[in-house]
């Protein structure tokens, strides 16, 4: 992947992993009740319902749909990298399918749609993924760790969206 030519910024004004928990990062980080491993497909950023979500790069809206688990989902291409940023459990969309978006543009507000409904405020979040295909299937296929884009994981200390 080539992110060197693409200016990227964080999706929220303040970005920190939900509950400071590794369970809310990417990969084989969760367990089912029987102890078997369960994947998490992205990072959960703490975000109370209604938090502004921004385009992390210049791009285009390539998917806008509702899924049972992830509720309202928006997928935006990341420049010309061939990768995509996915935002899930959204309350609303500010953009339409096919729209061009600019880095830092407010594209949606976080919510509790899909299986995030009724969470305590401390658990309300933006589920955020970096995808290698716009609409992948189950598991980790078609996704990479957001670490590959941001270079750091804000597990304990929030990282602010910076000026670019
Ligand atoms: Zn999640």
List the helices and strands and how they pair.
Elements: E1 14-15, E2 27-31, E3 37-40, E4 43-46, E5 52-54, E6 59-67, E7 71-77, E8 84-93, E9 100-101, E10 106-110, E11 125-131, E12 143-144, H1 147-150, E13 159-160
Antiparallel strand pairs: 1-13, 2-3, 4-11, 5-10, 6-7, 6-9, 7-8, 8-10, 8-11, 11-12
Bound molecules: zinc ion.
Keywords for this entry:
9-stranded antiparallel sheet; 164 residues; binds zinc ion; Glucose Permease (Domain IIA); 13 strands
Short description:
This protein has 164 residues and is mostly beta strands. The protein has one helix at 147-150; strands at 14-15, 27-31, 37-40, 43-46, 52-54, 59-67, 71-77, 84-93, 100-101, 106-110, 125-131, 143-144, 159-160.
Describe this structure in words.
- The chain is an all-beta fold and 164 residues long.
- The chain has a single domain, classed as Distorted Sandwich (Glucose Permease (Domain IIA)).
- It is built from one helix and 13 strands; from the N terminus they run E-E-E-E-E-E-E-E-E-E-E-E-H-E.
- Strands 4, 5, 6, 7, 8, 9, 10, 11 and 12 form a nine-stranded antiparallel β-sheet that branches. A two-stranded antiparallel ribbon has the order 1-13. The chain has a two-stranded antiparallel ribbon with strand order 2-3.
- A hairpin with a 3-residue loop joins strand 6 and strand 7.
- The mean pLDDT is 95.
- Bound molecules: zinc ion (ZN).
- Poorly predicted runs are none
CATH superfamily name?
A: Glucose Permease (Domain IIA)
What would the average pLDDT be, to the nearest integer?
A: 95
Order of helices and strands: EEEEEEEEEEEEHE
Q: Specify the number of helices.
A: 1
Overall domain count: 1
Summing up helix and strand content along with how strands pair, one would put the structural category as mainly beta
The hetero compounds bound to this protein are:
zinc ion
Span of the ends, CA to CA? 21 Å
CATH level-1 class: Mainly Beta
Radius of gyration: 15 Å
Largest sheet: 9 strands, antiparallel
Number of strands: 13
Question: What name is given to the CATH topology?
Answer: Glucose Permease (Domain IIA)
In which range does the helix fraction lie? Answer: under 10%
Apparent shape:
globular
């Amino acid at each position: 992947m080539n992110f060197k030519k693409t200016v990227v910024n964080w999706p929220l004004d303040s970005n920190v992993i939900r509950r400071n928990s590794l369970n809310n990062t990417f990969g084989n980080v969760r367990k089912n009740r029987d102890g078997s491993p369960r994947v998490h497909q992205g990072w959960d950023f703490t975000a109370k319902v209604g938090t502004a979500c921004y385009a992390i790069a210049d791009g285009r809206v390539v998917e806008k749909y509702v899924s049972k688990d992830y509720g309202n989902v928006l997928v935006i291409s990341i420049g010309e990298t061939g990768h995509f940023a996915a935002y899930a459990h959204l309350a609303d969309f500010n953009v339409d399918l096919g729209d061009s978006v600019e880095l830092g543009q407010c594209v949606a507000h976080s919510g509790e749609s899909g299986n995030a409904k009724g969470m305590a405020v401390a658990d309300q979040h933006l589920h955020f993924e970096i995808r290698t295909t716009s609409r992948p299937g189950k598991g980790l296929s078609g996704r990479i760790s957001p670490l590959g884009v941001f270079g750091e994981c804000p597990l304990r200390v929030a990282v602010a969206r910076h000026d670019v």
